[in-house]
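Worked example 4.2. Below are the chains of a multi-component assembly; read each line carefully before continuing.
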Amino acid sequence: MSRCPKITLLAGGVGGAKAAEGLASSHYRWNLQIIGNVADDQEFHGLWVSPDIDTLTYSLADLIDRQHGWGLRGDSSNTLHCLERLGAETWMQLGDMDFATHIFRTEQRRLGRRPTEIATQIAKRLGVEIPLLLPTDDRVQTRIGTDRGWLSFQEYFVRERCAPQVLEVRFDGIEQARPTAEALAAIRDAELILIAPSNPIVSIGPILATPGIRDAISRSDAYCIAISPLIGGKTVKGPADRMMSSLGYQSDLLGIAELYHGLIDALVIDRQDQPHQAALESLGLAVSVTDTLMSQPQQKQALMEHCVEFALAQQDRSAA
Amino acid sequence: MSRCPKITLLAGGVGGAKAAEGLASSHYRWNLQIIGNVADDQEFHGLWVSPDIDTLTYSLADLIDRQHGWGLRGDSSNTLHCLERLGAETWMQLGDMDFATHIFRTEQRRLGRRPTEIATQIAKRLGVEIPLLLPTDDRVQTRIGTDRGWLSFQEYFVRERCAPQVLEVRFDGIEQARPTAEALAAIRDAELILIAPSNPIVSIGPILATPGIRDAISRSDAYCIAISPLIGGKTVKGPADRMMSSLGYQSDLLGIAELYHGLIDALVIDRQDQPHQAALESLGLAVSVTDTLMSQPQQKQALMEHCVEFALAQQDRSAA
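Applying the procedure described above to all two chains together yields the following structure tokens:
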């Protein structure tokens, strides 16, 4: 592996955006590509909203509302308020500037352009140079089976604030979905594959479940390293731990290791979770212990540099 | 005709909105229905924009930006600025609150609802109680043949600021368009039909050209009265006079009388045009001379009350 390896990051949700920012601000950004999650996309008011891709784009463009972790900084809500007055359901917060993204995306899709090209154009126009790739151009929709019935991801996550108990997760359309050539090439060409500290079920899950993607990673010679989304056995934000538990996984690092079994060479865990290091190593994983909280920009960059350097060192060791 | 006659107003553009406001603020509002113009509708950013209907709605809701004569008062342009950044053409000014109307309308159309129902819902939600009717639910598009080629109405009017010379006007889709039951009923039931001081070619023209509408007016027993859009032989705003001239009509009151030939019983003209009164009367038209400028709310109401009272007096005379 070269000293500035070709890196492909799998990134979903807020954790994915933070990891992307950490890499993008490091000197490892030059050979970086990012594969995002499209399964939590949903149509609102007839417009195609792609929350994970937008969060990645807005984060890398430094336009993100850092207080919320989503949406555009300084955005207003005039459109949404008027939609409410007209009788529309408006639980999904969409700002006026943010609406431009959804309007533009929807029109371009109706004109027949590939979602991948549209995402690229939006990112470039907002100043993002790092390639943001989609796992598929086809429609895949996360459906959450809960004690209150089946919900879309946004209904579960935003409208119901993750309150319902998750009994089942499926990705509608996943069997028919074709991986994009760009995503497959990014995996094939990678020297290092990083899995961001995102929700393994609903953020990374749909990327890996896209036919061809998981296989491509398994077959790749790249060193593959995941960052645990758990700190002290709990997620920093979001429902990953409860979701893993209610779906029958161990809601701890062993559960993470199980979900990424056959894919990853190493797992980066937080200092608070050091007690689990030996158990993870006994599964054949290399384990690195560090501070994994990414509140501040320096923390994001430091964590991501740590991951790359750990991977390089592991490679050196195995080459020696 | 009763003292509070059933009135149907044909209204397009800013002149139409002003006439509508004048009637709506008078005591003649109780039996009022308004038929608007949909032929200058156009899709922008994949959204269906209906400028004449929106101007009517926003005016009657007292939400209109009175400085511009279109759009919503106090609106912002955050969405449009972001669309521009993403690479979209943004010569059509659409505010953030205004976008809500277009987003809502577009989604409702895609859901299969009738444009008439959608226009009614938008108007009601914004507080407009007077029925705003569409001449047709079908797609009719004004095309302007100019010395710079064929343009949509908005391209001609907004983007090119009416600068090109108009050589031809056609309404694409008009032959196949079916009149709405609501518009036909409003004409059939009317005791008084008023034609607003709108552009007779492109604002009133497409309403009258909708199959069935002109016939229904001709066959109606209602007294039909038009307000001239000319003052001192010129339009107050807009290109009606130049357009009439370049299309081969007399660009004066006789041209107006010709365009409404067979429809109207009376023409209301401005004091500045009194010299033409005799010529108009020799065509068999009743003529009323008054102040037709509608800058102030009182002027709108006074003019429209004058029109109704003139019509009532003419009816009384013919009944006597």
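Take a moment to check your reading of the output against the notes. DSSP finds 13 helices and 14 strands in chain A. Residues 7-137+173-319 of chain A form a domain with the Rossmann fold fold (CATH 3.40.50.10680).
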